[in-house]
Amino acid sequence: MSKERVVVGVSGASGAALALRVIERLAEIPSVETHLIVSDSGRRTLLHEVGPHALHQLLAIADRSYQVGDIGAATASGSFRTAGMIVVPCSMRTLAAIAAGLADNLIVRAADVHLKERRKLVLMTRETPLHLGHLRNMTALTEMGAIVMPPVPAFYHRPQSVEEIIDHLAARAIDLIGLPVASLATEWDPQALAQNAVARTRGSA
Ligand SMILES: Cc1cc2nc3c(=O)[nH]c(=O)nc-3n(C[C@H](O)[C@H](O)[C@H](O)COP(=O)(O)O)c2cc1C
Fold first, then answer.
1. Ligand 1 centroid vs 202 CA: distance in angstroms?
2. In this predicted model, what pLDDT tens digit does every residue of 148-176 receive, in sequence order?
3. What structural domains does the chain harbor?
4. Which residue numbers belong to the known binding site for dimethylallyl phosphate?
5. What is the pLDDT of residue 191?
6. Are 4 and 179 in contact, with CB atoms under 8 Å apart?
7. pLDDT beyond 90 at 81
8. Where do the annotations place FMN binding (predicted)?
9. With b meaning 16 or more CB within 10 Å and e meaning fewer, what string describes 137-162?
């Protein structure tokens, strides 16, 4: 059985830990094959925010990885069939380049291919606050069919740690690709959440 290929682009925005979690969660799905591209700034944020082993960890988990400058790699072509692509985190530079069709590196080219082939493209854009240019690029990409998903935490599942927040965001992003697997993210279930809240209150009493 051929696997579902998912391309993961890591650019130089804050939130490098999200990239690691997305790759880890994708690796847990046996039917999925991951194709990783990390920008030069992405390497820097991984080092700065996660640590010296982060890049090696990512590369070790991914099924295949590519140099960001390798514009002739498989993921640069529309003939390379994929289930979708997640750019995590997505810098405002990469966002702008994708919006403008400036496919001068492999992350932007692969994203461009996903748009032209009408495939799923999830952009975990990270910057705050946003100026009008950022917002216009997000609007343009939404109009082109991309899904703009800033990593804004949810609190309904009552996260107890940063790891839980990261895990939930990674699961939501993967869910957006629409792989034929059960949802990874905790669903909104008021009854279950209320019971959890009661259990936690009792636990802390
Ligand atoms: C530690 C660090 C954090 C950064 N955080 C962000 C960010 O949250 N959002 C953003 O758009 N750029 C951020 N930048 C700037 C980008 O890395 C820079 O614009 C870079 O050119 C992006 O290149 P890339 O899109 O090819 O990865 C950050 C840079 C560093 C060093």
1. 43
2. 999 999 898 899 999 999 999 999 999 99
3. 4-204 (3.40.50.1950)
4. 156, 172
5. 77
6. yes
7. yes
8. 12-14, 39, 91-94, 126
9. bbeebeebebbbbbbeeeeebebeee
